[in-house]
Amino acid sequence: MERPPLGLPAPPAGQGPHPAGSPGAPPSASPAGRRRILTAYLFLLPALALLATFTFYPVIFGTALSLFEYNIISPPRFVGLGNFRRLAADRYFWIALGNSVRYLAVVPVLQGCAILLALWVHRSARGIGWLRAAYYLPVVTSIVVVGILWRWLYDDAGLINFVLLRLGLARGPIHWLASPGIALYAVMFVTLWKGLGYYMVIYLVGLEAIPPGYAEAAAIDGAGALQRLWRVTLPLLRPSILLAATLSAISALRVFEEVYVMTGGGPVYATYTMFYYMFDQAFGALHMGYAAALGVVLAVVTIGLSMLSFRLLREGGLSYY
Amino acid sequence: MLVLLLSSGAWASPPRARIEFWTISLQPFFTGYVQGLIAAYERAHPDVQIRWIDVPPQTIEQKLLAAIAGGVGPEVVNLNTEGTLRMAEARALVDMDGAVPPAARGRYFPNIWSSTRSGGAAYGIPWYVVPNVLAYNRALFRRAGLDPARPPASEEAFVQAATAIKARTGVYGFMPNIDGIRFLRVFQEEGLSILAPDRRRAVFNSAAHVRVLARYVALFKQDLFPADTLQRGYLGATERYAAGQLAMLTTGPQFLLRVRADSPDVYRETAVAPYPLGPGRVLDLPTMELDVPLASRHRREAVDFALYVTDDANQLAFCHLVVVFPSTRAAAADPYFTRAGQSPEDRARAIAAGELGTARDLTVVVPHSDELYRAFREAVEQAFYGRMTPQQALDWAVKEWNARL
Fold it and tell me: What average pLDDT score do residues A221-239 get?
């Protein structure tokens, strides 16, 4: 039987002007079918309107803006691909792009930690609900508050240096946010800390969806805990890994708030990311068109990376077996 | 009922001009003052209605741009000199040399009026100014064996005191104002020029400039000021001073209020002295301006209101509420500024008033300021983090500037 549009169930036999099963009578041709489709679109309408206003329109407008020179005050001037040509020779663009790409290193670490955490809290034990909530707490905490908190922790006289000095692990305070070689990684750690709970929840849902029979069968066949994790759990968790890794990579490329609050892009542009540069160009230098061009480049990188994730991780889940 | 309606003003004719007035962070401490100003102006000008909006400093430029883009920009907006020049470069502001009559212009200190001069026009009406003073922790001075009654009077003595304090107490002596592009001000305080007289060429890579930068780089390497000085700026310095972790603070006197609120103990040990001047004998004078966007629908009324807010009487009344200083000559001549009381604020007021004569806003006015400032900031940071020598860093920045000037 032909699949109805939008996956809706086929109309009951005998309904509509065409007799059921008659050739050339698509379900949507009947008034009832049309009504159902209309109903479906009506349900979609609020979400579509929101998406159109806050996503599609800005995307189209932003892409078009990248072809103009515009400072908000004067009328826009068409420059074609001029903004993109300028990018190639702009050293701050390359610095920002390099830092954003480097920031992607947080993705595998974050996902690895989140999977381990999910495996740990994915069990019934007394107080486990509190533990899950505790790990989720940073997710719902304002990033500005988190940034200020970690700035204090990273301070020369902050808790981290205090502990390291007390334990004799450092000879002097480590300038976590003031050393060009360390600052980016220090900020990345905050992203990891804040995101851990969020991805843990994604993996918890993924683990819940895995029927226990697979692991039990593997155990009966003599597989150890590590083998079960590597050969059963992780392959079955792949759809969750794909989702979480893609979301996490997109977030990493778009990092801004942590940098804004903690380092301001410094020292020596060591934490200057693409989003920060876009912000600087748009609201500091009033180069809206150039900022839009940066946004387009970032979008292309993000889409390319997402496609790569899908290619690498799409096999998995229950289709693995 | 009719009498009631008539007396309530509900049937009064609508105002001819609605002026939206944006300020920076004056609520809640100065709400009464600004509302009083507005009420008095509206009484004197019944056909003008003022709507006051207070905006945080970090977001005012973004909000202003968004408002102008949306066609709902303010008629009068408070910006600092850097913000004013940035907006002027985007051709967003009214030329005040043309809009303000010469007699009214003459009421302001000429050096302060010129703060926002760019391309032959001045783009802001000066409001209040806040020259830096030196606040210092007497307890830390005593611990370091220094006499709290004799604070450093020159930049040289200031650095020596900071060195002694760090060596003897382990607490940092100072956090120099060198974050972002503030080293441009340091050069000027040292009596060194940034641009050639024709303003078409950067000249800040001379041997004297290199010596100044190299000196601060050496102090940084000796750990004589905190590693985050280049990122945190005066806010970080004020936090550290209020925590008792910094002996000397060179900042606007208004920050003493924050120290008083956050750390009464440190505030009790705080004394105030004149800003230790460098060899240039010039003091930076950060200035707040009132600007009128070109998009203003009531330009004449907007300029008139801005002149009213910044007139002698209103500036003087504002200065009675907080340690800021007027930009008009008659207001600054008031005996109020020379009466020294006992509190650190009173001392700061008397000291800063005396500094007004030698002070000027040291903001460097250049075209393509965002690109030039970015290159300068990077060069200075490269030198501090040892990735370039001071000579290489300044040579590179000068080359970048000259390619765009």
Answer: 86
CA distance B127 to B306: 9
Q: Indicate if B78 and B211 belong to the same structural domain.
A: no
Residue written as tokens 């069968």? A217
Together in a domain, B156 and B298: no
Same domain, B146 and B16: no
> Does residue B351 belong to any structural domain of this protein?
no
Here the CATH number for the domain that contains residue B275 is: 3.40.190.10
Dihedral of CA B177/B183/B185/B191: which sign?
positive
The reply to whether B90 touches chain A by the CB within 8 Å rule is yes
Mark yes or no for CB contact B374/A92 under 8 Å. Answer: yes
pLDDT score, position A317: 58
Domain shared by B199 and B265, yes or no: yes
Across A47-72, b (16+ Cβ under 10 Å) vs e yields: eeeeeeeeeeeeeeebeebbbbbbbb
Q: What is the pLDDT of residue A319?
A: 59
Q: Please state, in angstroms and rounded to a whole number, the distance separating the CA atoms of residues A44 and A7.
A: 14
Segment B56-69 shows an average pLDDT of 85
**Which residues of chain A form beta strands (DSSP E)?**
68-69, 77-78
- Give residue B112's domain range: 2-128+286-338
A11 band by pLDDT with thresholds 50, 70 and 90: very low
Helix (H) or strand (E) holding A110: helix A106-121
Nearest CB partner across the interface for A267, out of B61, B86, B231: B231
In a domain, B263, yes or no: yes
* pLDDT at residue A316 in the model: 58
User: A72 and B245: CB-CB below 8 Å?
Assistant: no
Q: How confident is the model at residue A6 (pLDDT cuts 50, 70, 90)?
A: very low
User: What value of ipTM does the predicted structure carry?
Assistant: 0.77
**Cα–Cα distance measured from residue B223 to residue B229, given in angstroms and rounded to the nearest whole number:** 11
Is B345 domain-assigned?
A: no
How many other β-carbons are positioned within 10 Å of the β-carbon of residue A144? 12
Q: A254: distance to nearest CA of chain B, Å?
A: 20
**A5 has a pLDDT exceeding 80:** no
Ordered by start, the domain boundaries in chain A are 86-320
B145 plus B257 within the same structural domain: yes
Give residue B14's pLDDT.
Answer: 67
Read off the pLDDT band of B7 (50, 70, 90): low
B146-196 pLDDT tens trace: 999 899 988 899 999 999 999 999 999 999 989 889 999 999 999 999 999
Q: Smallest Cα–Cα separation from A253: which of A271, A270, A275?
A: A275
Interface check for B69 against chain A (CB to CB < 8 A): the answer is yes
Structural domains counted in chain B: 2
Q: Is B72:B64 a contact under the CB 8 Å cutoff?
A: no
- Give the HSE-up count for residue A97: Cα atoms under 13 Å, Cβ half-sphere: 17
Task: Quote the CATH superfamily of domain A86-320.
Answer: MetI-like (1.10.3720.10)
* Tens-digit pLDDT profile for residues A247-276: 999 999 999 999 999 998 989 999 999 999
Q: Could you tell me if B282 lies within 8 Å of chain A, comparing CB atoms?
A: no
Per-residue pLDDT tens over the stretch B290-315? 999 998 999 999 999 999 999 999 99
In a shared domain, residues B194 and B260: yes
What local confidence, expressed as pLDDT, does residue A2 receive?
39
Q: Which two tokens stand for residue B206?
A: 């001379």
Alpha-carbon distances, residue B199 vs B348, B366, B380 (angstroms)? 35, 8, 21
